[in-house]
Specification:
This protein is mainly α and 182 residues long. Helices cover 68% and strands 0% of the residues.
Length: 182
């Protein structure tokens, strides 16, 4: 299968998105309070992060632990998607394209539901952005994967239908012999 420009640009952009996602996950593991914890906490609770650290440092540590655990859960999924992208999707394999679309919908959809229910919608626009941009990039070469070309007649084509009841019109024969009338 010859790669189209859309497929080539799609796997390159999707690879960049996965690497950015892995970078965000690693940043959340190394230092979660610098990237997302402060904004999330302040938007969700209405109090500042420094107030929480001063009043209850154990709760702040637990909150950072949950952010780190979530980021650690992202890494295997992002890594496997990156492997599928580099190993099969860039070669134009249909199964890889379908697997990436399904995993993107499931992963970003569950994070979207989680952000809407657990965090009160604080990070919902973030996950809507990632879901839309990922699906847009993956659906760029959809015509290449879904377009069907008719098989040429001759060797390797499907056999002609020969059962009498499946034929139409004047070619249809009665089971006891002879042709049926229209």
């Amino acid at each position: 299968m010859e790669k189209s420009k859309l497929l080539k640009s799609s796997w390159i952009i999707y690879t960049v998105l996965l690497i950015v996602g892995m970078g965000i996950a690693v940043a959340n593991i190394i230092s979660p309070h610098d990237f997302f914890v402060k904004e999330q906490f302040e938007l969700y609770t209405g109090q500042s992060w420094s107030t929480l650290i001063a009043e209850n440092p154990k709760q702040a540590a637990l909150y950072k632990h949950f952010i780190r655990a979530g980021a650690c859960a992202w890494l295997p999924g992002l890594g496997s998607a990156l492997f599928i992208t580099l190993a099969a999707y860039r070669k134009g394999k249909k199964w890889a394209w379908m697997a990436l679309i399904i995993s993107t919908i499931l992963a970003n959809g569950t994070h979207l539901i989680h952000a809407g229910i657990i965090h009160g919608g604080v990070r919902t626009p973030y996950w809507i952005f990632w879901l839309c941009i990922s699906l847009f990039v993956l659906l760029l070469p959809a015509k290449e994967f879904l377009g069907h070309k008719a098989a040429p007649a001759g060797r390797g084509s499907l056999p002609q239908i020969s059962h009498p009841w499946l034929l139409r019109g004047s070619d249809r024969r009665h089971p006891r012999g002879g042709y049926t009338r229209k």
